[in-house]
Amino acid sequence: MTLAAPLRQPRDTAPEELSGAALRSHARSWLDSNLPAHFRTDRLSPEKPSIDETIAWEAAMHRAGLVGITWPKAYGGFGRSLREHLVISQEIGRTAMPESLNSIGKELAGPIIQAVGTEEQKLTYLPAILEMREIWCQGFSEPEAGSDLAALRTRAERDGNVWRINGQKIWTSGAHNSQRCLLLARTGTVEDRHRGLCLFAVPMDLPGIRVNTIRSIDGKDSFCEVFFDNVEVDEKDALGLPDEGWNAAIRVLGIERATNRMHRAWRFDSEIAHLVSACKSDPRLSALLDDGYYRRRIGASVGDAEVLKSYVETVVEALVSGESIGSRGSLAKLHWSEAHQRFAALAIELLSKASLPHGDAVKAAIARFETIYLHSRAETIFAGTSEIQLGIIADRILQLPKGK
Ligand SMILES: Cc1cc2nc3c(=O)[nH]c(=O)nc-3n(C[C@H](O)[C@H](O)[C@H](O)COP(=O)(O)OP(=O)(O)OC[C@H]3O[C@@H](n4cnc5c(N)ncnc54)[C@H](O)[C@@H]3O)c2cc1C
């Protein structure tokens, strides 16, 4: 596959006709034959995918029927069931491909636009997300409003046919590469808290928007601070009703914690298999695999990944049966982030004991697991910290009395 291919191409398969095992087999063989070697994070490669290559790759995944699986066909999707989405997520999870550049568009903005957007907004935004013509970022957190999102201060004031936005967002992942921002801004007063908030689909090239990148511990410019100085957003880019932004935001966060990135459970599984295979390639690490201490810890991670996989499958079945996600996404988010962080620390600890000089398999594993380890530090923070998930589980699932 040529990655520099133009984005708006005809679809290269007829995936609508495939189902069940045939769909799984299509996804597996397409990924195996098309994923470029230098995208694979389990191999040593001097070259990293560029933004243009990533955009072309994700657009190709969409043409192959592996993205927008449950979205209606009218908006560029494939109109399939959540169970079929799960099958494809499992296949994506078993490959060592990088996370999507447009996961905010595909997994947060897309579902919320389908829930609260007008027909015109759906036709405008949704195909552009799937075809990778528009990459989205999420402008929720502010310097004084993270866990307590209802404290946010960025203001949106009505001025004729536009909303005038003033304020600052922070930790906005990928804002510097984005064409649109899913912005949560205040239309009422700070004292209104949950009332008087609105969601916007803000074009990132509007005058008055300034983006500064923030370097993260892994040396990447992963997130940004975004300043809005009298930015005029057309009224057609307001999503949902002006005072309904909080309810829409809570739905976004519910989706973020429960059904998006379902592939993570199967990726976790394949990371464990990668660590074990790298250890087997090295005499000292092979010996450690026989050590009861490390066997128990690897076994605990295998158990964690199994729990997570069955949890994802349970949530999918519940949704297919018409039940709502409710607060249950908090259980999956808490379990995945804490368990993955423990596993990443174990991987780094084990690999640090490899024989010298390192063989290629160990070198590749060190490069991959160092990145995973550094990123895992953030996993218990983004999409709601572990303490916030514990609070939600205590209040809404266990209905424990509130502490003082
Ligand atoms: C890698 C990464 C990417 C991110 N990407 C985005 C993005 O794209 N868009 C976006 O809008 N945001 C993003 N965020 C921000 C993220 O949502 C916030 O960091 C998170 O909500 C926590 O907010 P905070 O950093 O302000 O911490 P605070 O809310 O100030 O929390 C500080 C500490 O106090 C604890 N705490 C706070 N309140 C309570 C409570 N009620 N009970 C118990 N403990 C509490 C927290 O658990 C935490 O340990 C990202 C964060 C990271 C790390």
**Structural class, from secondary structure content?**
alpha+beta
How far the N terminus sits from the C terminus, by CA atoms, comes to: 60 Å
Rg calc: 22 Å
Q: Tally the helices.
A: 12
Number of strands: 8
State the order of secondary-structure elements, H for helix, E for strand: HHHHHEEEEEEEEHHHHHHH
Could you name the ranges where pLDDT drops below 50 across 5 or more consecutive residues?
1-8
Describe the sheet with the most strands: 4 strands, mixed
State the CATH topology of the largest domain: Butyryl-CoA Dehydrogenase, subunit A, domain 3
Strand content: 5-15%
Bound ligands, each once: flavin-adenine dinucleotide
Helix content: 40-55%
Keywords: FAD, Flavoprotein, Oxidoreductase
Pfam families: Acyl-CoA_dh_1 (PF00441), Acyl-CoA_dh_M (PF02770), Acyl-CoA_dh_N (PF02771)
Family: Belongs to the acyl-CoA dehydrogenase family.
Domain Acyl-CoA oxidase/dehydrogenase middle: 137-231
3D architecture notes:
- The protein has twelve helices and eight strands.
- The protein is an alpha+beta fold.
- Strand 6 and strand 7 form a beta hairpin.
- Helix 3 packs parallel to helix 7 (263-280), helix 4 packs antiparallel against helix 5 (119-130) and helix 6 (245-258) crosses helix 10 (329-351).
- Residues 1-8 have low confidence and may be disordered.
- The structure holds flavin-adenine dinucleotide (FAD).
- The site of flavin-adenine dinucleotide has 19 residues, from strand 1, strand 3 and helix 12.
- This is Acyl-CoA dehydrogenase family protein.
- Its cofactor is FAD.
- Keywords: FAD, Flavoprotein, Oxidoreductase.
